[in-house]
Design a protein that fits this description.
With 515 residues, this protein is α+β, with helices and mostly antiparallel strands. The protein has 18 helices and 23 strands. α7 runs antiparallel to α8. The longest helix has 27 residues. The structure holds glycyl-adenosine-5'-phosphate.
Amino acid sequence: MAQEDTFKKLVAHCKEYGYVFPSSEIYDGLGAVYDYGQHGVELKNNIKRYWWESMTLLHDNIVGLDSAIFMHPSTWKASGHVDAFNDPLIDNKDSKKRYRADVLIEEHAAKYEEKAEKEIEKARERFGEHFDEALFRQTNPRVAAYIEKRDDLLSRLSDALNANDLAALRQLVIDNQIVCPVSGTCNWTEVRQFNLMFATEMGSTAEGSSKIYLRPETAQGIFVNFLNVQKSGRMKIPFGIAQIGKAFRNEIVARQFIFRVREFEQMEMQYFVPPGAGIEWFHRWRDLRLQWHLALGFAPSAYRLHDHDKLAHYADAATDIEFRFPFGFKEVEGIHSRTDFDLRRHQEFSGKKMQYFDPSLGVSYIPHVVETSIGVDRMFLQVISASYREEVVAAGDTRVLLALPPALAPVKLAVLPLVKKDGLPEKAGEITRRLRLDYPCHYDEKDSIGKRYRRQDAIGTPFCVTVDHLSLQENTVTIRYRDTMQQERVAIDRLPDIIDEKASLKTLLRLLPSL
Ligand code: GAP
């Protein structure tokens, strides 16, 4: 099935099974804003807990923070967001549709890569198990030509962005004959800069009110509280501050479901280190964050690291962890070495010292910062798209499955009486009441057992526990495993151990290294 079709099915599945709904849908929705349903909110909470605990429980020197969304307007002057948090926009004069010029060019470059991948896939089928992909990439002239075209285009894009050369950006669109997906024409306006921050008014009267912004990143709340946390917690450098919270961006290219939205959540950690140590810590955090992703058990080949050519105004090194979404490899998380840019600027704009006295060196300095920044919504999309499967179970029989990492699954087990009589519902109710304070449980007695299994597969429940007549005599149940569909008879008393071993967050956290 084409990737596009799979993606459409995934979006429909998310709605049908209570994961994600379009915002204010009864009014036809609001562009690039989404709500999370009964299962979505649990999956989201589990992702956040996995991140939070991996930061704050596994590291003695990382503490949490919850700063306000509204911040003093000078914050955003100091951070550079008022002047530099822009996207280059271009309009198609025929369709009147607006695009990000850099995204149009990146998508064009990705098409060369797709063509190269297709050649590789064809060759893989032709040569079977003797296929040497690395050698083929090096020696096949068609693949080499596609990759060269892609690299050339991306390098020209990077030059134009670094030089802030909007005319050069437009020229790249024209030279490559990039057309508007709606009108199919190449009739483009000039490229203009557009600031992504949402502004609002604080205060009750027009004269007395002042313009403030909805924060476009959570990081600034950490920077302005750096000394509060350091002093009140008597923290010694190196140390980190972690925060999860909402961020807002007036995205122009808001497509691909919850990949790029206007209201989203970030999980950010700022790690404060001595001057000169930024790059070393940047590499350590990059490795650690990749381990965090890999521990979830999705194919390692679905991840790649992408070093930035164009660095944000605050960074001296940056890498993205990219994941292979149904629409290609895209950024899920950014790791940045932010130098002392932010603290220095806040010192400048506030007039307050942002320095740390280092007792081991006997000197004061403005610390440097390594940041790890990941979007909750994007991570959610990554998890759910990697988990969505349609499997042929038998001739003419398929099942839709969310093979979620068990520790993240919103419902851990379903308790199902085989029939609605003979005391089986009462026994199943007893088991549910015993387990539900430790694990989110579903109780379901409606429809055939086969239909109930399929319903739980579609929700992503890792275990179905079936209560039958033998359960009454022996205090045993059958446990059915979602991914293999295998069943096993086990004592009811063993259920907590089985679920803990396979589906607890602790099991996942134990796989992780710490610093
Ligand atoms: N503090 C650094 C920062 O905000 P970023 O690369 O702009 O860096 C970090 O954003 C992460 O936030 C991204 O990797 C992505 O996961 C998430 N993110 C950014 N914009 C987003 C949007 N419009 N919708 C969903 N997630 C977004």
